Amino acid sequence: MILKTLNILIIDDDDVDRMAVKRALSLTQIPLNITEESLGTMGINRLKTDQKPYDCVFLDYCLPDLDGLALIRELRQSSIHIPLVVLTGQGDEQVAVEMMKAGASDYLTKTKISPDTLSKILRNVIRIYQAEQEVKWANNQLKENNKLLIRKNQELKSQRQQIELQNLQLQETSRLKSQFLATMSHELRTPLNAIMGFSQMLLSQYPDPLTIKQIDMVQRIYNNSQNLMNLLNEVLDFSKIEAGQMTLHPSNFDLIKLATLTVEELRSLAIEKNLVLKIQIDINERFIVSDQNCLRRVLINLLSNAIKFTHEGEICLNITEIPPSKIIIALKDTGIGIAPEHLSFIFEAFRQGDQTLTRKQTGTGLGLAITDALVKLLQGTITVESELGKGSTFTVQIPRYLGNYE
Ligand code: ADP
Questions:
Q1: Per-position b or e across 269-304, b if 16+ CB within 10 A of its CB
Q2: Separation of 294 CA from ligand 1 center, angstroms?
Q3: Which of its termini does the chain have fewer beta carbons within 10 Å around, N or C?
């Protein structure tokens, strides 16, 4: 439905024809504002410069200064897309087809001009024009959205590249850190070995005996060097694991023998603290396939932590199995326990339950991080249950047969 007053331009050099169109248009019941031009160039000029927007042009196909085809082409090339209705003579269908190809919206033979035909054509071309404008608008919107998407995509791409770059930098920093830790601990171990070797020589009291005071002092030098050596070894192991340089050497070995020997190795530490150290084993087949050294390190770390953090009571190493393929190693102590808020991070490197400088226990905070990494290498899992003041249980589950090695 057309409600607003339409601005119509009639371009025709023939006064009679112009009058006929004008009269027929005024009888269409459509509110119209009609402007007339008799020359093509004047019409083009008006369409290009007039302030008011025209809604439709009725155009004689044969003008004295410009033929209709050239006029249509000129308007369309100037991005004037308003509806153009060409008025042709009788039998000029071929001309009309050419005009339509050049961009005319419709055509009408002059003999058929009537209020009815003009109103129909007018409504039709305006409806099509409006639909075209809407499609154009939607298309522009799509183009804009597309541009926005392309821009966002580029932003995401450059962000991703930045993240990748940062990632590479982080990896490089981490590699340098591991390398530094490995080099430093390696370099420190050489003089430390000399200190330990010479203090052992002095402690052998050969060829010259030492006084009791001297023995005590040298013993302290030896013990402290030993502690320092243990710390350095932890740092070295950790940097090796982090750098992915820890390789497994699976073999078929006696688990009961390994567990018993490891417990005996640490028994003196438990005795020093008056702790009971028990071992309970309930498995059918004592031989397993795993990395013996790794498993020994796991046991030593867990046992020494249990002894370190237990001040009275007992520590029990319990080994069972879930046939056919799982071994469960649980280490239970009656020690100080771990606060619930610390449980989530004790397996992280350098994290300790007590991180104050005045803490009672020594340590690097690497033991459990190394243990966790070793257990993962052994394709197993480690979990902990603990209650403050009552004790902790660390449970390691590993496969009886490591990987495909059977
Ligand atoms: P470190 O023993 O060198 O501090 P670990 O990585 O071995 O580092 O242990 C991290 C922290 O976990 C310890 O500082 C301690 O707070 C807690 N922890 C580990 N084992 C026990 C245990 N058996 N009983 C109580 N707390 C423990």
A1: ebeeeebebeeeeebeeeebbbbbebbbbbbbbbbb
A2: 19
A3: N
CATH architecture, domain defined by 251-399: 2-Layer Sandwich (3.30)
- pLDDT tens per residue, range 273-300: 999 999 999 999 999 999 999 999 999 9
For tokens 């009408």, the residue is: 108
Query: Is the CB–ligand 1 distance for residue 346 below 6 Å?
Result: yes
Residue type, 136: K
For the domain spanning 168-242, the CATH number is: 1.10.287
**CATH class for the domain made up of 6-113:** alpha beta
- Cα distance between residue 349 and residue 366, in whole Å: 5
Collapsed DSSP state (helix, strand, coil) of residue 362: coil
SS3 content of the chain, % helix, strand, coil (to 5): 55, 20, 30
Q: What is the pLDDT of residue 91?
A: 74
From 199, 203, 181, select the one nearest 191 (Cα to Cα).
199
pTM: 0.59
- How far does residue 349's CA lie from ligand 1's centre (Å)? 11
Enter the DSSP assignment of 101. Answer: H
Domain coordinates in residue numbering, the chain: 6-113, 168-242, 251-399
Of 258, 240, 395, 264, the C-alpha closest to 333 is 395
Atom of ligand 1 nearest to the CA of 368: 6
Helices and strands of the chain, counted as H and E runs: 10, 12
Q: How many whole angstroms separate alpha carbon 40 and alpha carbon 338?
A: 96
